[in-house]
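From the pipeline queue, job 12 of 40. The input is one protein chain; the requested action is below.

Action: predict structure.
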Amino acid sequence: MAKRRQKKRTHVKPTEDQLSKVPKSMVIHLGTALQNHSLTQLVKDTRNMMQPHTAINLRERKSNKLKDFVVMAGPLGVSQLMLFSQNEDSGLTHLKMATMPRGPTATFKVSEYSLCKDIANFLKKPKSIGKSSVEFTSPPLLVMNGFTNPKDAEPQEKLIITMFQSMFPPISPQDTKVDTIKRVLLLSRDKETGNIDLRHYVIDTKLVDVSRNVKKLVNIKKQLNKKLPNLSKVKDVADVILDPYAQAGFTSDSEVEDDAIVEVQDNEPALTRPKRKAESQAPEGSASTTTATDASVPVQDHKRKKAVKLTEIGPRMKLELVKIEEGVCSGKVMYHSYITKSKKEINKLDQIHAIKKKEKDARRKQQEANIAKKNEKKLAKKQRRAERKAALERGEKVEEDDESSDDDDNEDEDEPDEVDEDGELFDVDDYQHSD
């Protein structure tokens, strides 16, 4: 099989700095959500929606914890973590969106959701797209409707707007090509309830300023499996191209509104007018060479009218903001939609969080000191073994008491770890397994 040609002049590979700035996401579900087949399919549909900068083939295990994914997010360059969970008692589904590596985390209640297959069932003409289709080679266009201006919005709404905008790379009007935008992610906020409706569409564009016959000829260039139209009954080509009764790009059963018609700059390379043989062979100073015919004259690019049509492909979700936490799925609650606290309660909680933070820092320092002490013991043990081996090779006698020092690092395991309320010593492991 022949090797596929790669365009090196137009397909420029991005640098490492550009790749590091592109936001990457990871969509997971843990706990009881692993047993819900419908929620598992929702996770897969959400991964398709977040393509191409997401872990599309990620597989979770029952033994995996949230900490495992948080630890691996740093080396993999993940900037957004989306976690689907289900309550064991109530059965409610929640979506947590965390900004890596230090937060914040926004928790949404998924009131309603529809899978991609459900949306394809009730559409008259569904769009069948696989996860490896061309539409998923570029991120979707984020459209936010009903949100307040960030300058005038409340702190929680302003934070939510920033989190949604940071999920996808920013679009530059000067650098971004219109043809690369294939999908639209619509976030519509209800101002009365505050709920957010999430919709996912694919963009279809069709020519409007040409007849149906010309449109068929244009599409044959991109779709080689289509056959040429039958021109046996046509006496002149003008009957095909200049037919005033030919239908436009869309058929009569799906009429195009005036708002859906836009003018798009044609990105095809400019055509050049070749030199004529008479002009190239004419002598210098002749009348034919008085005009500028030494170089080929490019034809100016022209704008074409196209009709834009959006087809929903899913998933569809209705999100309700519950709370916003300071860290990654843990930490101080900065906003809660159901619970309100007074200033005294907030100050008391701040003191509790400050005490917990000090205790956590102290435990971390103690752990680091223990690890350093343990590494020193291991290094000393290796040195003693090397010295003993070298002494044996030289034929010297080695005292057996030296080996007793090799078990110094096991002394900590034999000693008890904690003291209970009665003052008696016990092992932590034995205490945990006694329940």
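Job complete. The longest strand covers residues 196-207.
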